[in-house]
Amino acid sequence: MLVETASGPTQDQVEILEYNFNKVNKHPDSTTLLLIAAEASLSEEETQKWFKQHLAQWRKSEGLPSESRSVPD
């Protein structure tokens, strides 16, 4: 079982999160979020926080507004 370090998710956990973000869904619903959290051995809150932060970083890198969902990912 993976354990989150004080500085954030482990490399293995980040790989799981990034795979799901890039290949599965940038906006997971609550059920999908729970499944991702379980797979990464993180809490739902930690997983949701990671997705929110990563989405904001992705949108910034793409030159998109930080909160708008009107542009398809």
Automatic annotation (TrEMBL):
Q: Which GO terms describe its molecular function?
A: DNA binding
Gene3D superfamilies with a match to the protein in the record: Homeodomain-like
The residues forming the signal peptide are none
Domain Homeobox per the UniProt entry, residue ranges: 10-61
CDD domains registered for this protein in UniProt: homeodomain
Annotated InterPro entries: HD (IPR001356), Homeodomain-like_sf (IPR009057), HOPX (IPR039162)
A GO BP entry: trophectodermal cell differentiation
Q: What is this protein called?
A: Homeodomain-only protein
* Naturally occurring in which organism (per UniProt): Myotis brandtii (Brandt's bat)
